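can u do me a favor
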């Protein structure tokens, strides 16, 4: 069940927004862990591809962050 906050948004919308802000950071962290695992196991060929993918997801997520403020009078 959702509740309406004082600014007019629902708690579900607020939680969804917070999850959307965390996803690029999680993708960057996972790609860093994958790169470390590739280094440890000796598979160094795909490191550039994993780094490029993780960087693209991180930059795409931060570039797509949009804040909309609606003022009701």
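np, heres the sequence
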């Amino acid at each position: 069940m959702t509740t309406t906050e004082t600014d007019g948004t629902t708690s579900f919308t607020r939680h969804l927004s917070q999850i959307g802000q965390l996803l690029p950071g999680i993708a960057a962290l996972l790609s860093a862990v994958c790169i470390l695992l590739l280094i440890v196991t000796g598979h160094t060929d795909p490191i550039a591809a994993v780094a490029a993918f993780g960087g693209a997801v991180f930059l795409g997520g931060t570039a797509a962050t949009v804040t909309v403020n609606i003022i009701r009078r």
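The first helix runs from residue 11 to 41. hope that helps!!
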